Amino acid sequence: MSILTTTASRRSFLKSATACLALPCLDTFAATGAASPAAKKRMIFLGQGFGFLPEFYPTESGRFSEIGLTEGLSPLRKHQDDITLLGNLLNLGAVKPHEGSTTFLTGANQNGKNSVSCDQVAAERLCRDTRYSHLTLSTVDDKGHGNRCLSMAWDRTGSPITGLNTSLELYDKLFSSQESREQVMRRIKTRRSVLDGLEVNARSISRQIASTDKEKLDEFYQTIRQVELGLKRQLDWVNTPKPAAPYAHPETMDGETEVKLMFDMIALAFQADQTRVSSYMMPSQSILSSMGITIPVHALSHYNISEERKVNAALRDKKCTELFGYLLDQLKDKKDLGGQSIYDSCVISYGTNIKSSHGLKGFPLFLSGGGIKNLRLGESIKLPKDTPLANVWLTLLQQVGAPIDRFSHSTGTLSEIIG
After folding, report:
1. pLDDT tens-place string over residues 74-86
2. Within 10 A of 193 (CB to CB), how many other CB atoms are there?
3. Distance between CA 288 and CA 312 in Å, rounded?
4. Distance from C-alpha of 22 to C-alpha of 262, rounded to nearest angstrom
């Protein structure tokens, strides 16, 4: 194997007898011009986009059974003992008032480089033996989430992970069997042969590059490893048929139906143990359209401009919690392969970097699920002012078995949410 450079570019190439693969742009060549978890715990991360009205939030701490639910929370009444709403959170990575999801799971300041998202850290721990390492779901309706935000998920190199944008894409992924076993094997072998021909001698290459390029090469090697792990996963599952589709996918649907289908299929994927981690950057504008509201969602976030906007914003808030309740219904109704409620093995989080309008401080986060023993549920919990959101992620990740002591800008775990 050799390294080739060209005078036209700093792009270098690794060449073997069977393949040639581009390396990252390395400054060195510029001068020449050339373990399975003990229990099957599951996690769901939901991204809201824009936040809620100020009156949506409880004004005091306490059990919902005692302090009651606000009007915006009222659709969750049947689940009030199974949800907790944390308050006073701060995401140091959230600096843009229209980006509720871009750094929601990472905490990285997007004026710099993003970092790995907590759903991917969870997936590394929980999805070692599932067909899919994670389900990353998204929407083309990105208003309130972040400009051109592909999903809430980011890999170990800080690169965005493209999500499945429609329920039809997810339906095809979970249930379609369009490829024969022979076609899958042929595709995998073709990609494998490329990797087999690119046995990178890291020590040899390191002697030829500057220290400033080592980080780029580390990312490059990690990308190759991720591809190899993905191919291995496909080989492990190539002889296992996908589950039969429980229903035909609708030809047309509105925004609310789309979200419900996504929730249905998350629950089904968990039920069949196809994966144990999913994130979903949820649509907003299509939800409003399905409600007959024509005001753009961004304009609606400026609710103080008119009474009409405030009324419609309140209706949106209730629809959002109604849909959240629908997901909890699905998880509670379905049993896993061992006969346990899917809900009882889940940890569900739901929120956004944005509190109300475009405010980024003191935002809330919903928690639910029975996947963490002693997780405090049924409460409004006012955390200390500006509690790092990363502390919540660190606490949850440790509780599901991730061997980490720190996540993003965390300062410690939260004893307030574990009873």
Report:
1. 999 999 999 999 9
2. 12
3. 9
4. 37
List Cα–Cα distances, 347 to 19, 31, 165, 186, 350, in angstroms: 44, 52, 23, 38, 10
User: What is the SS3 assignment for 335?
Assistant: strand
- Are β-strands 135-137 and 277-281 bridged in parallel, bridged antiparallel, or unpaired? parallel
**CA–CA separation, 200 and 221 (whole Å):** 8
CB 365 within 8 A of CB 351: yes
Mean pLDDT of 39-45: 89
Place of tokens 């592909």: 150
pLDDT at 183: 67
What is the rounded distance in angstroms from the CA atom of residue 9 to the CA atom of residue 31?
A: 10
Rounded CA separation 285/141 (Å): 7
> Which tens digits make up the pLDDT trace of 141-152?
877 667 768 899
318-333 pLDDT, tens per residue?
A: 999 999 999 999 999 9
* Cα 366 from Cα 87, distance rounded (Å): 9
- Strands (DSSP E) contained in 183-336 are 277-281
What are the backbone dihedrals phi and psi of residue 74, each rounded to the nearest 5 degrees, phi first? -60, -30
Q: Return the structure tokens found at 39.
A: 């229990």
Q: Which of 240-244, 248-252, 254-258 is the most confident on average?
A: 254-258
- pTM of the shown model: 0.78
pLDDT band at 241 (very low <50, low <70, confident <90, very high): confident
Range of lowest pLDDT (90-104, 117-131, 288-302, 330-344) = 90-104
Closest CA to 130 of 338, 243, 334, 273: 273
Among 226, 142, 139, 130, smallest CA distance to 174 is for 130
* CA-based torsion, 312, 58, 98, 116: positive or negative: negative
Q: At 304, which amino acid appears?
A: N
Q: Are strands 42-47 and 277-281 parallel, antiparallel or unpaired?
A: parallel
Determine the Cα–Cα distance for residues 147 and 160; give it in Å rounded to an integer.
13
* Stretch among 15-19, 37-41, 354-358 having the lowest mean pLDDT: 15-19
Distance CA 45, CA 280 (A): 6
Burial 256-272 (b: 16+ CB within 10 A, else e): bebbbbbbbbbbbbbbb
Distances, alpha carbon 345 to alpha carbons 222, 277, 285, 368, 412, in Å: 31, 12, 32, 11, 24
User: How far is residue 191's CA from residue 369's CA, in Å, rounded to a whole number?
Assistant: 39
